Amino acid sequence: MSDASTLRPLRASSVTEWDQQADVVVAGYGIAGVCAAIEAARAGADVLILERTGGWGGAAAMAGGFIYLGGGTPLQQALGFEDTPENMETFLLAALGPGVDKAKIADYARGSVEHYNWLVANGVPFREAFWGEPGWEPPHDEGLMYSGGENAAPFNAIAKPAPRGHVPQMADKKIGRKSGGYMLMKPLAETAESLGVRVEYDLRLGRLIVDDDDRVVGVIAKRYGKEVAIRADRGLVLATGSFAYHQQMIEGYAPRLIGRPAAAIEEHDGIGIRVAQALGAELAHMDATEVAFFGDPQLVARGILVNGRGQRFIAEDTYPGRIGQATLIQQENQAFLVIDEASYEAGLATETSTPFFRQPPTWAAETVAELEADMGLPTLALQATVDCYNLHAADGKDPLLGKKPEWVRPLQGSLAAFDMRGFTAGFTLGGLRTDLDSRVLHVSGEPIPGLFAAGRCTSGLCAGGYVSGASLGDGSFYGRRAGVAAAKN
Amino acid sequence: MSDASTLRPLRASSVTEWDQQADVVVAGYGIAGVCAAIEAARAGADVLILERTGGWGGAAAMAGGFIYLGGGTPLQQALGFEDTPENMETFLLAALGPGVDKAKIADYARGSVEHYNWLVANGVPFREAFWGEPGWEPPHDEGLMYSGGENAAPFNAIAKPAPRGHVPQMADKKIGRKSGGYMLMKPLAETAESLGVRVEYDLRLGRLIVDDDDRVVGVIAKRYGKEVAIRADRGLVLATGSFAYHQQMIEGYAPRLIGRPAAAIEEHDGIGIRVAQALGAELAHMDATEVAFFGDPQLVARGILVNGRGQRFIAEDTYPGRIGQATLIQQENQAFLVIDEASYEAGLATETSTPFFRQPPTWAAETVAELEADMGLPTLALQATVDCYNLHAADGKDPLLGKKPEWVRPLQGSLAAFDMRGFTAGFTLGGLRTDLDSRVLHVSGEPIPGLFAAGRCTSGLCAGGYVSGASLGDGSFYGRRAGVAAAKN
């Protein structure tokens, strides 16, 4: 079956028989889909979820589970962190741009506490514990962590630092550790099904069905190649995830991710984006990407990270995803970690949830000059960097990049360096342009009647930057909005 | 009139009367449009150009006029430069990516000599003279120049350097200097009109008209608010330029250009892209941008360019557009030029076509340490950079970035620095995805029947990188293809 027959909309008048029908049809049973289904059902709609795989979860169930929330959530308050919606908004505007959807950021920051409470009311557990060490995720079941560099330069001078990475409590390790993402999805899926939401598995989203006024009234889905016509009386919600696994879209929109998809699932083939494009949907920020960096944050914070020219380029104690973006986009994917023996040992002695980031050093040397030569850098390239760093580090300062004093120490004695070139991978953040009610916007700026979307098939909070929890965050938040709006449609 | 009524396609069955008709209708009378019109007319079609302003030219007529051509053009040969299509292709693949349309690059490199000859045959004059100095444009009417960093690091080690910036000879300065772009457009417009191409001025492109099979059969255009229905029997060619002046598209697709459009005209409002999106057209590389850097290349090559941390980041003798991209995208738009008095005087003494780039230094000092402090850089930040540079420059080398020996000299004596933060501006390179026949591709991958496009409303040769002449180059090359394909349709 060609892409064309999958993508071009079908006129409702040519559908002779509808195989299924619901008030609201949701395509994709990940975080955005489940939240849409719950809210649509609560608003009185008969809801049908179409899921391509054999079970609920999507990429969400495999994720670490961060949901980016703040503005003074009960969890933040219980753990002694002050935050306000305005403070959260200030940070997000600085960290996620340039070009963010300002209305969406303001809306999300203002609705964040209510959204936290909604998640808890729907069974998502958060343990009242804070993890304050550098890292990608908490090592145990701590519920709160910095997940976007809020407490690092340059953002700690722009907005009052508050941790906003909320992690659902993981199941007891004795009975098999489940990720935070699984523990987010499970109660929500149970809630949806308790509300009478129906689910059809092994059904792939295909072309959309429109009436003579170009209103979306259904969808053709496929089960093992057989087409099924499904009627959506009030609305269709697209919640089908990113385009990280659609090769042509990656090449055409986000080419820096060629060959390096991560934290996505192969079902993320952009289909939700493409069927909406076929109706004239507008896109946004298609080049934006989350970028993971596979260096141990406990070691990175204690050393200096240099690019292919031996120059520092980022405060090493910031959010690892920021390091990933800076390395991939600004440093041609070239990074080396230089650390002295004492700091290396100190870092190794820490507890971490990500031991697979640990590897032996690539080079070891007694002097910077020797290390520089071993790394193939021009004479003085690394020495000059270390001289400047050490001069200020002796006073506990980092005027060049603003690493916090607690991580600043002159490099001395035996040194090691890790070759971290190409140590990045990520997923796409761009997609359909939607409004605050998750209506899919036509290129004209008007909503496409009957069509809603949320999650990573949309452009959400992130334009250029990223924070861990933004995807499950805007996916769940605007998934809910999609469900409400579709049910009322 | 809302954007919606401008953008949503109109069914042909609802058009009661056609005001105009042609075999091939071309929207936009810039470089892509004029080339499409010429080839369509030569293929026997009756051609009508719709132009929004009162005259031909578009952005092309105001441009410097570079057309990127190579592979052994007669001009390259006459001036003693060897080049082959394969060599040109190798360079373009390295310089314009990642994510380039490889088929288009191969096609363009192979067709480049023929395209040069076609331009000459249609009256475009090129003077047999080479300009080899750093700069944006030749200062006089030289016809050939390096325009993409072919002879600078890293590309001079990847492909054999050959200059490919072909500039139409400017008119006699005595009778008023006309830009190379004007001298490109003038003979082509005269050729088009000699072939009987009709032109309607002051007509703005509006919504497309499609038949019941979604084939494009015409367009609604507007003259002073009044709608005019124009029938295109064989095809419609979109040649309406970039989206540099559509604020929402810039924010959503290329936000680094917010507030800094350049080398575009206000008519570049993305209309051609949007009317095609409304039919389900696929896009590509919407974040890609040309970026000008407003520093005098004669001075830049002689000094060192440092970022906001006092670190070098690019070979200073490369194509200024590469410096612009690196500064804006990789260095947060922070750049400073540091130069010593002797090199400054030497640079000032050169001839340049761009005297408006010249400005007095922001700081002057007797030592690097003093300059560093004046610039507000941390102690040793700039000194370390200069120490490393000078060490190798004493041997005429630049192992860090590969600046060519002819420009490498230790910085010594009195020093000056120029604050070049924010000294960038540019235009957009992304747009409609088209095939080698300039057919606009639907998101399904199939061509949209009856619809063709070329120039900056399409994604052409450039993905991430840029070379001067790529826009007039692919605009003219694929404009021709569009004309041929539409006429045969």
From TrEMBL, chains A, B:
GO biological process assignments: steroid metabolic process
Cofactor section: FAD
Gene3D superfamilies named among the record's database cross-references: FAD/NAD(P)-binding domain (3.50.50.60), Succinate dehydrogenase/fumarate reductase flavoprotein, catalytic domain (3.90.700.10)
InterPro entries for this protein: FAD-dep_OxRdtase_2_FAD-bd (IPR003953), FAD-oxidoreductase_2 (IPR050315), FAD/NAD-bd_sf (IPR036188), Succ_DH/fumarate_Rdtase_cat_sf (IPR027477)
Keyword DNA damage (UniProt): no
Residue ranges of every copy of the FAD-dependent oxidoreductase 2 FAD-binding domain listed in the record: 23-466
Iron keyword on record: no
GO MF assignments: steroid dehydrogenase activity, acting on the CH-CH group of donors
Keywords, sorted A to Z: FAD, Flavoprotein, Oxidoreductase
Signal peptide extent: none
Descriptive protein name: FAD-dependent oxidoreductase
Native source species: Nocardia colli
